Amino acid sequence: MTLLAFDWTIVIEKLILVAVVVFASLGIALYSTWAERKVAAFMQDRKGPNRAGPFGLLQPFADGAKLIFKEEIIPNSSNKWLFILGPAMAMTAALITSAVIPWGNYLDIGGRHINLQIADVNIGILYVFGAVSIGVYGIMIGGWASNNKFSLLSALRGASQAISYELAMGMALIAVLMCTGTLSLKTIVDQQMAPGHLWNICYQPLGFLIFFVCAFAECNRTPFDLSEAENELNMGYHQEYSSMKLGFYLFAEYVNMFISSAVMVTLFFGGYDVPFLNESLLSPNVAALIGIIALMVKIVIFIFIFMWVRWTIPRFRYDQLMNLGWKKLLPLALVNMLITAVVILLLHH
Predict the structure, then answer these.
(1) Does residue 153 surpass a pLDDT of 80?
(2) C-beta neighbour count of 305 within 10 angstroms
(3) CA-CA distance, 190 to 231, in Å (whole number)?
(4) Which residues 6+ apart lie within 8 Å of 214 measured at CB?
(5) What per-residue confidence (pLDDT) applies to 162?
(6) Which is higher by pLDDT, 228 or 172?
(7) In the chain, which ranges are continuous DSSP H helix?
């Protein structure tokens, strides 16, 4: 009985892809902080960061260096291990979600067929939901381990908010799955690219709207940033944090925003699909490059919308937030799911 030779090139390919995706996610999140301040400045008729480097382009590095070199304080009464674990878990949960997102079709290098997706698992959407849910533990552990009643109250708010909106988000996704018949994100993109097939936004406009609103709540973005409401609960669940631990919490929000945008584009806007372009006429590498650029353009548009909403809409009260989640979005998502089921049944008969 001969042992099968292990193909190390696949492992190396995947490791390179992981490194590229992680550094790209961190780089985009880094410059999202700069872009957010520029968008806010534009909307408020001022300049925004403009001192560190041309157009303030080095400002994110200045902010990062400031956080790294700040004094690190761990409260005496805190649970030290959990206090460190909280921000680490928030950041890890934000990054691991990117593993199942198809960033492009495939590259052809030296006759090798390299898929631009870290893991094409057939339960990709369930994996995304599982990874997103871990982020709630990061908030909860950080708030509890601080041994500060305001941090704990804020963490409880954040956790209950995320759990409430995940339900409506899940229901909106079920309607998409009924239309596509698969949990694999790659297959969902391939279906949207197929001739005669439209993007899922055309079949599920209400599902997308519900998913989009829930994404704001999941990312703790205005108008749902109740877990970080400085004017209500001091500074939120990360009140006792300083230096890079605080940086991890703040940074995880921007990584989440990037990954949420990528998931929405993949599910509803054809992922790396370019409308009216026949990719089969191009070489695989050119088609992959155009696909990556198209995906990134769509993601940047969504990130801009996240920022636009932040500087346009005021924060909800907590009772309004919970009312919207349980009494508006959840029934809407259920109705959307039932309508989708009825339409599919009628079409099949």
Answers:
(1) yes
(2) 14
(3) 46
(4) 165, 166, 168, 169, 172, 329
(5) 85
(6) 172
(7) 8-43, 59-69, 80-96, 124-145, 149-180, 185-193, 200-203, 205-218, 243-268, 284-310, 318-323, 330-348
Cα distances (angstroms) measured from residue 103 to each of 22, 35, 117, 219: 12, 22, 6, 21
Rounded-to-integer distance, Cα 331 and Cα 325, Å: 9
Does pTM top 0.85 for this prediction? Answer: yes
Proportion of the chain above pLDDT 70, given as a percent: 96
Grouping H, G, I as helix, E, B as strand and the rest as coil, residue 108 is: strand
Helix (H, G, I), strand (E, B) or coil at 117: coil
pLDDT at residue 297 is higher than 90: yes
In whole angstroms, give the CA distance from residue 241 to residue 185: 36
Looking up tokens 């990037």, which residue turns up?
258
Q: Which two tokens stand for residue 147?
A: 């041994």
Q: How far apart are CA 97 and CA 7, in angstroms?
A: 26
Residue type, 141: I
- Give the integer Cα–Cα distance in Å for 64 and 13: 30
Helices in 269-317 by DSSP H: which ranges?
284-310
The model's confidence at residue 1, banded by pLDDT at 50, 70 and 90, is very low
